[in-house]
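Before the break, one more example. Copy the sequence into your notebook; we will annotate it together after we see the structure.
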Amino acid sequence: MVHRMPTQIPGFDELIEGGLPMGSIVLLAGNAGSGKTLFSSHLINANAKHGRSLYCGFFEKKEHVHE
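Here is what the structure looks like once it is written out:
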């Protein structure tokens, strides 16, 4: 049985069988404008209290990501 961490993103957890596998490393890739930054910032914000997260962005300015 794989233990999963819910993403708290409406509808997404149902698509991926309940959430992301605990302890996994997830690479989020896609074309420009596909919602990668929005998805990852929502995921990190919603689940920050449950564990560690790392966001590596190469094109966003710090002011646009960090609040």
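The chain has one domain: 4-65. The chain has a mean pLDDT of 81. Try to locate both features in your own notes.
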